[in-house]
Amino acid sequence: MNSKFGRIWLIAVYVFLYLPIVTLVIYSFNASPLVTVWSHVSLKWYAALAADDDLISAVGLSLRVAFYSALISVLFGTFTAFVLNRYRRFAGRTLLTSMSSAPLVMPDVIVGLSLLLMLVSLQNWLGFPERGLFTILLGHALLGTAYAAVVIRARLREMDGTLDEAAMDLGCKPFQVFRLVTLPLLTPALVSAFLLTFTLSFDDVVLSSFLSGPGYSTLPMVIFSRARLGLNPSINAAATVMIATVTIAVVAFSLYQSRISRQRQREIALAYSESNQTL
Amino acid sequence: MKAKVTDIYSNLRRYINGRQLVIGIPYLWFVILALIPLLIILKISLSEMETTEVSNMFTAGGGWLTIKLNFSNYLFLGTDPLYFDTFVSSIKYALATTVICLVIAYPFAYFMARSPAHLQPMLLMLIMLPFWTSFLIRIYAWKTLLVSDGVFNNILISLGLIDTPLQIMNTSTSLMIGMVYSYLPFMILPLYANLSKLDMRYLEAAADLGASPFKTFWLITVPLSKAGIIAGSMLVFIPALGEYVIPELLGGSDTLMIGRVLWDEFFSNNDWAMASAVAVVMILLILLPMAIFNKYQADQTEAHR
Fold it and tell me: Which of the pair, A216 or A272, is modelled with greater confidence?
């Protein structure tokens, strides 16, 4: 009785989670201009998408912002994670911990407002930065750094510290240890942090709205402004393309990850058998 | 020129060693992008401004050194019933979201943790997968389902359950559906992490001692999963409090939420000081549950010693 009820509960929640996504995908192939009335299967909204210049330029901007902000996030996220993991004691450690988790906790509207007001005061002082790609990038990179730091820290924590010590004993300088030992072991975490921060940036609407200037609309900003006006079948098609792209990327990444972990296990097994032979 | 650069470098190296440099980089990053902006919000919320006159604020007032405290924005927040109602209704919506998410997620996480071990990674993956699709799109998708000539109403009418379409869209019901939908995974994941580590021997012991399944659940499982319940509730309550996109797309014009008021003060009324004051109060509202959470965690570590 218990497990039957449990199975129903599990299925019901999954239906709840996937129902809107599935409906959206199905209705993107609907020929009717009325979003809620089904007429027959058609690809006309995809054709409309290909001719939609606003949307296409927004995709270009979003991809650029997401790529660069993910790069910056992984860079600073690695520094943050490394410092918080490696240096147990330094002045202001608590401050760094809370500053790096603040963007995760604060609602987007607060992060957006506070960053914008700072950038505006900076502009009044120094004459730059103009609002545009650079300011959107800063906002996304701030949020991304916070997330990347969490992901990379989790990997650093489970990594074996003895490898670093061994490298040090063999005469490596700290930076060499980092480059030759820590970084290669960290790569899967860096890739997943990159993907996560890329998606976060590609999905963000609130921060972008605060930080963008005229002429700089990211894809979510365009979708949001259209969605506010009402239902719009072209959004369904755009959404389906996004969902398909993301699904492919996620599947590819999980294949990559399982390959990496298999490879690592093989290498470890090999190293063990060789060390046993020498002994 | 080149000699000069190396000079600067060696001068710098005299004061800063490698360790300080490594610590300094993330420190500077977050001070500039996280700490200073928050201090500026605080400063602006205490300033008196007509409209977008931020440029004058630093020069006219003699820069940063003379900060005149001006609580008029906060007094206005306290006296205008609109703001008060907004704060109250935001807290209500965020609390309701948290409770409904907990009621749905707890049994879910419980059964997920009890399901066969080889199925669990897939079940977990299915929870995480929607995270990778655009949040905005998923919220928008609910509109197609909920509007008066939408999928739900069409199904209900064709089944003969109702004659006239139900008005779900643009009510607090559609807002709650969207909020619960978006935040449910944030409740499920910490609960699952907690419940999957539950020591089954406690439950067996309770059953051996004659406790009914319900009693075992209530007296053993629930107390042991308290940390997961609290973590999940925090992950849901705090972002729900400041939510902007969901009420904007699903909530209709009369659902009052702080995030929306802040947005309107800023973008429609151009009142930057008021928007900052709203943000500061929102931060204080977030710090309260955080403090309770931290105290709870501190007590836990104390108890474990």
Answer: A216
Residue A141 CA to residue A173 CA, distance in Å, equals 30
Q: What is the DSSP string of chain A?
A: -HHHHHHHHHHHHHHHHHHHHHHHHHHTTB--SSTT----B--HHHHHHHT-HHHHHHHHHHHHHHHHHHHHHHHHHHHHHHHHHH-S--TTHHHHHHHHHHHHHS-HHHHHHHHHHHHHHHHHHHS-PPSSHHHHHHHHHHHHHHHHHHHHHHHHHHS-HHHHHHHHHTT--HHHHIIIIIHHHHHHHHHHHHHHHHHHHHH--HHHHHH--TT---HHHHHHHHHHH---HHHHHHHHHHHHHHHHHHHHHHHHHHHHHHHHHHHHHHHHHHHHHH-
pLDDT higher than threshold 80 for residue B18: no
The residue type found at B65 is L
Length, in residues, of chain A: 279
Paired tokens of B82:
């609109």
Q: Which residue of B has its CA nearest to A140?
A: B33
Q: How far is B151 from chain A (nearest CA, A)?
A: 7
| Residue A197 pLDDT greater than 90, yes or no | yes
Pick the closest to residue B192 from B94, B106, B257 (CA basis). B106
**Interface residue of A3, A9, A39, A105 to substitute, partner B, most B CBs within 10 Å:** A105
From CA B110, how far away is CA A119, in angstroms rounded?
47
Contact B140/A223, CB-based, under 8 Å?
Answer: yes
* pLDDT tier, B66 (very low <50, low <70, confident <90, very high otherwise): very low
- A100 and B140 in contact by Cβ < 8 A? no
Q: Which A residues, 138 through 157, put their C-beta within 8 Å of a C-beta on chain B?
A: 138, 141-142, 145, 149
Distance CA(A91)–CA(A37), nearest Å, equals 63
Q: What is the pTM of this model?
A: 0.86
* Rounded Cα gap, residues B144 and B152, in angstroms: 9
**pLDDT per position as a tens digit, A53-99:** 889 999 999 999 999 999 999 999 999 999 998 887 888 888 999 99
- Whole-angstrom Cα distance, residue A221 to residue B16? 43
Give the closest residue to A199 by CA, choosing from A220, A178, A217, A170: A220
- For residue B50, what pLDDT band results from cuts at 50, 70 and 90? very low
Per-residue pLDDT band at B14 (split at 50, 70, 90) = low
Name chain B contacts of A239, Cβ cutoff 8 Å.
Answer: 134, 137, 140-141
pLDDT at position A278? 63
Q: Which of A4, A10, A13, A37 to mutate to test the interface with B (most CBs of B within 10 A)?
A: A13
Phi first, then psi, for residue B248 (nearest 5°) are -65, -40
CA A119 to chain CA mean position, Å: 24
